[in-house]
Amino acid sequence: MNVPKLVSFIIPVYNAEKSLTTCVQSILGQTYNSIEIILINDGSTDNSKELCNKLAEVYPAIHVIHQKNSGVSAARNAGIKKANGIYIQFVDADDYLDSMMTKKLVNIMNTNINCELVICGYEAISTRGIKKYTSSIEGMFKEDTYLTHFGDLYKRVIIPSPCNKLYLADVINRYQITFTNSLSIGEDLLFNLSYLRHCKHIYINNDPLYKYVTDNEHSLSRGFRNNYLEEQQRLLEEVTCFLRERNALNLTNEQKLGEIYANSIINALTNLFHPDNPLPRSKTFEKMNDILNAAKQNIDIQHFRGTYQKRLVRTLLRCKASYGLYAFFRMKPYLQEQQRILTTLLKKFKHE
Predict the structure, then answer these.
(1) What whole-number distance in Å separates Cα of residue 324 and Cα of residue 292?
(2) pLDDT tens digits for range 248-290
(3) CA–CA distance, 69 with 42 (Å, rounded to integer)
(4) Buried b (16+ CB within 10 A) or exposed e, 16-32
(5) What dihedral angle (degrees, nearest 10) is formed by the CA atoms of 91, 96, 102, 104?
(6) Mind giving me the DSSP string for 100-112?
(7) Can you tell me the mean pLDDT for 156-165?
(8) What is the pTM of this model?
């Protein structure tokens, strides 16, 4: 009888007392039982430290590391060093798993001998609803095939996160793959690009098995970021270099990267009008023009297509209507809130 291979779950914990128990219980409730859970308390200031210790006392499969606040990358790296499993899964303390997630991913890995990475879909859950993220392809793929679709996988936000994946611990340890401690944005993507450099075969399963909870006050995505566009440009450059070195920067991937850059321009403009932006209006307008100049220099305007917002931005860019763009993005948070209220009311009336 084959002994089930151990899966190590690595969970960075920072001020997660409200969500940690739900997260851990979703792992303990997996239909795959050969597991260990490594909780890395990253200098929490709430009761997370005590909760981690309490969980470890009750459940022998749970191990705890306490460290000074060093960031999620350092926490995950500490977890990798502690892990004993053949396989590794990363989980964020705000999130939870479908009860079948680990069993499905391990079965895929075990039945596809050459597979070095399994990727699944996931759901982003917020007060606004649930959004599914899945790939346009499914099954076992050799390197040259999945690289052909890489731009689309990246655009669909399947590649960046480490949480919708099952890794081989041997690959991580053999090639000394780690998360970059100095980064707070994009460290997940760089880790995955480093891992994928050693993957000849990957398997994609579109079941949304990971549940990503986005309404967390400690989430990095919640606040204003002064250098948002520069950060996104850096990550796009990393993906471009990755594809170029693997001779996979084809026209399809270039097209997808252009569309992603267009999304980054819109997100950068949206970020600029975040309520936490401390910049005066004159500085905000100046920074907006910097973003628009970057768009004109680095992207084909035709990539702004599809949604009404993209088409509006394309028209305003073509007309060089800086004040129009300023007015639209300044009003956007208000319009989104009104849309949210209207949607809530319509749902209420529908059920009455």
Answers:
(1) 12
(2) 999 999 999 999 999 999 999 999 888 889 999 889 889 888 8
(3) 5
(4) bbebbeebbebbbebeb
(5) -130
(6) THHHHHHHHHHHS
(7) 96
(8) 0.89
